[in-house]
Amino acid sequence: MALNATKLxxxxxxxxxxxxxxxxxxxPSDLSFFDTHRLSLAFFVISSIDLLNSNxxxxxxxRAIIDWIYSMQIPPNEGIGKRGFRGSSANxxxxxxFGHLTMIYSALASLIILGDDLKRINRQAIxxxxxxxxxxxxxFAATHGSxxxxxFVYSAVVVSHILQDWSGxxxxxxxxxxxxxxxxxxxxxxxxxxxxxxxxTYCAVASLSLMDKLNFALDKSEIKSxxxxxxxxxxxxxxxxxxxxxxxxxxxxxxxxxxxLDTYHFTDVNANFDFVMSTQDPIVGGFGKNSxxxxxxxxxxxxxxxxxxxxxxxxxxxxxxPEVNISERATExxxxxxxxxxx
Length: 343
Ligand SMILES: [Zn+2]
Hints:
Layout: H1 13-25, H2 38-51, H3 62-71, H4 101-113, H5 123-133, H6 150-163, H7 171-180, H8 198-210, H9 214-217, H10 220-232, H11 250-260, H12 269-278, H13 297-308, E1 320-321, E2 326-327, H14 328-338
Antiparallel strand pairs: 1-2
Helix pairs in contact: 1-2, 2-4, 2-13, 4-6, 6-8, 8-11, 11-13
The protein binds zinc ion.
């Protein structure tokens, strides 16, 4: 089913750009708990501006933002767990000042979007961090001694893909862990035995695809069950689990999973578009998780990313790469880095 193109006029691009520019400078106090994860907030804002085809707005600050991201890179040889990127300077120098797998991804993805050549990245330290954070069961911890689950499997895999260096990952163990997280329901849980969830299903499917193990790890009936589970999560927008309300972010998590599995056309794009647009804030811009929640950087980004999966929205948004979760324009720059012909 194609999107009714007249709906695109409801999209308030300039409001969203204004909201994102404000988020780059100051956030409301109710987002203060994100303070140790500033890099991921920066990624949501920078990638949103990219999807809105408004990169030129960052020109004046581009160098300063790139330097700030690199300032989060932990110098080598600081000890166990002290490799990669910290999420914020808030913990700098204290006992919890660890590198964090998702912050490494946020840093690399943001640098690629900003057109950086990644030449100041300490690749060896990052690969060693990934190796250090893989556990015996194949999963990955976020930081030294922290919880381990599918979110950090994806972070380790996508960072290895970006660096084109897989030596930090035991791929066989990783695939075994992912496979054990496949629930009887059809989707993937965060860990073996957990309820299937839209976010962990995305992380599992995108990881298998990036490792080129999708068809090796899953047989046809399992892939069919995953597709069915994802399609059944559409209730207008998408819910993350059965009997939950729809939430803007799952338009990306589940939509991108279906895109990777080449079955996005099974979704009702008009109902999905209408739901995401109902979470658009017409006064200050941005998107919330639902129509009665205030806008925040994460749901704004994932709302835009979810909308960009709908074919007709390329009139208002860049197309997104569903596996790496950056625009196709940024992906082209990444390919350029991979070819080592980056200028
Ligand atoms: Zn959400």
